[in-house]
Amino acid sequence: MADEAANRNAFSIQQHYCQEMDAPIYAALSAAIATGLTRRTRTGARVLDWPGEPTRDALPLRLIGGLHALVLAGEDERLARVFDGTTRDESAIADAVEAALARHDGAVYPWLDGPPQTNEAGRSGALMTGLIEVAQRHGPRLELIEIGSSAGLNLLIDRYGFDLGGTSVGPRDAPVVIRPDWAGDPPLPTPIEIVSTRGCDIAPLDATDPAVEARLSAYVWAEARARMARLRGGIAMMRERGVDLVAADAADWVEAQLAVPQAAGTTRVLMHSVVWQYLPDETAERIRTAMLAAAARADDMRPLAWVAMEPDRALAHQVIRVRSWPGHGDWHVVGTAHAHGAWIRRGPIDPARDGIVLPDTAKVTL
């Protein structure tokens, strides 16, 4: 049953996330929608009557993505003043949103049909931080399999350059360099050879299609100019040489990939970022079961690893975790990160430093 209060509160939760991620425009926009959205349009009514779990369904980002698409297409000047930060008063923002929905209801309504596929290339910095840990444990040769690949931008991880607190990784002449703000000790220089990258998504996107590029751009937050530059740079790389990305159910695909013979001297790594929350419980459990079965077969010549960057609601940002076999089967926190990769803090979570009351992180369902 729909719960209007819960659906409005999802935008208040999104406001908090945006404030934590230094996104004041989107924080103000979320706050205005939380209190000011009405049922005068089909879109507004559908949001307020949303039948699912709105935060898990990323309902705020679905709606805001549709609104941003109008702005990027030059369809609504009044709304554009919200997205460039000119309009800051909450009631004025709410009025601009209502007016935009009244004029463009039919254009925004379909954006509610599916979850956002932000496919942020900056998350590769967090994933690489985890991969360095894997390489230190098991050696440099890594075979990567990714679920929830969306348009495949993180499958370019072997072609990006990285500056991780002063530690350089990747090709020296990489056209896209990912350089997050860094806190904590930098990772030790570690040889890494990514021998292959493969990915799946339940509904993969072709980023080289101009219409898809426009859609992905709409999910880039207006404040994040560096994100937009990375997105366009990554798509240019994909136009030069594509990636191995297929449409598949995540559990079906992981089971199939783990059954493929593994080369000696190479670690097979399952990786994902901001995906786990969207998986049906049955799918997540099948992946856990498949990984643990494969872990029982892993040995020093054919190790297995799991690298995840997934949100922790207590922190309002992401936790980078690694587990690997043989020898390191428990989840190990290697750092925390901004949801879009703007910063990485390497090292364990420190509740006193981070100003939180932290539950047992081992209970995070991964």
Which terms summarize this structure?
globular, 12 strands, three-stranded mixed sheet, about 375 residues, nine-stranded mixed sheet, disordered C terminus
How would you portray this structure in words?
By secondary structure, the protein is α/β, with parallel strands linked by helices. It is 41% helix and 19% strand. The protein has twelve helices and twelve strands. The strands form two sheets. A nine-stranded mixed beta sheet has the order 5-12-11-10-9-8-1-6-7, sandwiched between helices. The chain has a three-stranded mixed beta sheet with strand order 3-2-4, covered by helices on one side. Strand 10 and strand 11 form a beta hairpin. The two termini are 28 Å apart.
Q: What's the gist of this structure?
A:
This protein is α/β, with parallel strands linked by helices and 366 residues long.
Task: Draw up the topology in text.
Layout: H1 4-20, H2 24-36, H3 42-48, H4 59-72, H5 77-83, H6 90-108, H7 123-138, E1 141-146, E2 161-164, E3 167-169, E4 177-178, E5 181-183, E6 193-201, H8 210-218, H9 225-240, E7 245-247, H10 250-259, E8 267-273, H11 281-297, E9 304-312, E10 317-325, E11 328-337, E12 343-346, H12 351-354
Parallel strand pairs: 1-6, 1-8, 2-4, 5-12, 6-7, 8-9
Antiparallel strand pairs: 2-3, 9-10, 10-11, 11-12
